[in-house]
């Protein structure tokens, strides 16, 4: 009979220690996740993974390789497309698993024991997930390799510790109980092949959300999000739309989303009057702009573009774990000075500088 521990009442550091020890010994551990309870085994131990496979049965094949974040996913599938990378960044940790096809053979999956590869990477497809529960995420930071996981019960998955204990086999050493699963529905499984995705199994995250998360996103960052970054956003939309032969409103349909934000912005402020007028002179529209503060969601952009070196330094501590590295708008390392308080000609010069930098930036954006 496996040991049952209450995640909320127990010493969580001790629970993680015991989970790591059990996994290292080739035993199975049951973790809570936001969708259901998952059985886990060390991916480095073939007998443990085979025991996991016996517990869940063929219905759950392929088994999932569980990683910490999108950055670690690149170790296992380094050839995945930009679309696959951005979906992983934006969905993880969370209730989405991805079937990756591109570049799997060049990754670390090829170094797994043969018996494990057959179960996690059949026909060259690798299913990766990063559940959003702290118990399994903390464990992943302590074990020497990834975990292989599966949800016992198939579509009738276990959403409580009691259900998973009834479905578990003798190889299970520890069940971590954190009450009923938050969603109580399966994770969405998405297959990504190049620049296309399709849903293999419907779940928590619907198609509309995946469509919203799919475009290549550019976020321009300044301080208050009323002058420089709104100008960069509006001018970038205009110039990119001209390149693609569409309107600015049609850019998301063409695979691009252009936004702006401020490190110290007050939400809801309109663009500065001078910025609005200068944008209009250049054929761009800032009339609907409302300022916003840079958020965790916006940090998942494909391109974080700052106006100054100071903004770049301020962003650095918040980027990592698969997020895009911020870059300066100017390829020559020149700051775009804040025009606030200046007259219209100061704003015109700011817009001219931004336009010159955007020409270079958009040329880079066109490259694969």
Describe this structure in words.
- It is a single chain.
- By secondary structure, the chain is α/β, with parallel strands linked by helices.
- It has helices spanning 12-24, 46-56, 70-76, 82-91, 114-120, 134-140, 161-167, 207-213, 228-244, 273-281, 309-315, 344-366; strands spanning 3-6, 28-32, 37-42, 64-66, 96-100, 126-129, 147-150, 172-177, 188-193, 196-201, 216-222, 256-262, 303-306, 327-328.
- The protein has a ten-stranded mixed beta sheet with strand order 1-8-2-3-7-4-6-5-9-10, with helices on both faces.
Q: Which helices and strands appear, and what pairs or packs with what?
A:
Elements lengths: L2 E4 L5 H13 L3 E5 L4 E6 L3 H11 L7 E3 L3 H7 L5 H10 L4 E5 L13 H7 L5 E4 L4 H7 L6 E4 L10 H7 L4 E6 L10 E6 L2 E6 L5 H7 L2 E7 L5 H17 L11 E7 L10 H9 L21 E4 L2 H7 L11 E2 L15 H23 L2
Parallel strand pairs: 1-8, 2-8, 4-6, 5-9, 11-12, 11-13, 13-14
Antiparallel strand pairs: 2-3, 3-7, 4-7, 5-6, 9-10
């Amino acid at each position: 009979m496996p040991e049952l521990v209450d995640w909320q009442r127990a010493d969580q550091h001790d629970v993680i220690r015991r989970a790591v020890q059990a996994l290292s010994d080739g035993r199975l551990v049951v973790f809570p996740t936001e969708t259901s309870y998952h059985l886990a085994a060390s991916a480095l131990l073939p007998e443990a993974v085979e025991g996991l496979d016996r517990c869940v049965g063929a219905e759950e094949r392929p088994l999932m390789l569980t990683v910490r974040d999108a950055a670690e996913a690149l170790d296992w599938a380094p050839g995945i497309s930009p679309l696959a990378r951005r979906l992983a960044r934006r969905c993880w940790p969370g209730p989405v698993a991805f079937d990756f096809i591109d570049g799997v053979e060049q990754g670390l999956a090829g170094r797994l024991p043969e018996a494990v590869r057959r179960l996690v990477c059949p026909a060259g497809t690798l299913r990766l997930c990063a559940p959003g529960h702290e118990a399994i995420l903390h464990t992943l930071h302590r074990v020497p390799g990834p975990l292989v996981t599966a949800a016992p019960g198939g579509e009738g998955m276990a959403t409580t510790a009691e259900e998973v204990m009834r479905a578990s086999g003798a190889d299970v050493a520890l069940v971590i109980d954190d009450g009923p699963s938050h969603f109580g529905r399966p994770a969405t499984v998405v297959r990504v092949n190049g620049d296309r995705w399709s849903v293999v199994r419907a779940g928590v995250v619907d198609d509309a959300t995946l469509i919203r998360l799919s475009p290549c996103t550019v976020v321009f960052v300044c301080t208050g999000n009323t002058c420089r970054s709104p100008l960069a956003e509006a001018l970038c939309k205009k110039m990119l739309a001209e390149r693609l032969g569409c309107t600015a409103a049609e850019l998301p349909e063409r695979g691009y989303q252009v936004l702006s934000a401020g490190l110290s912005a007050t939400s809801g402020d309109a663009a500065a009057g001078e910025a609005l007028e200068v944008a209009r002179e250049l054929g761009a529209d800032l009339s609907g702009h409302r300022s916003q503060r840079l958020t965790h969601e916006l940090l998942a952009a494909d391109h974080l573009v700052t106006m100054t070196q100071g903004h770049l330094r301020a962003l650095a501590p918040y980027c990592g774990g698969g997020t895009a590295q911020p870059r300066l708008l100017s390829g020559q390392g020149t700051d775009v000075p804040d025009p606030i308080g200046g007259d219209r000609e100061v704003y015109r010069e700011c817009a001219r500088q931004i336009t010159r930098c955007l020409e270079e930036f958009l040329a880079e954006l066109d490259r694969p």
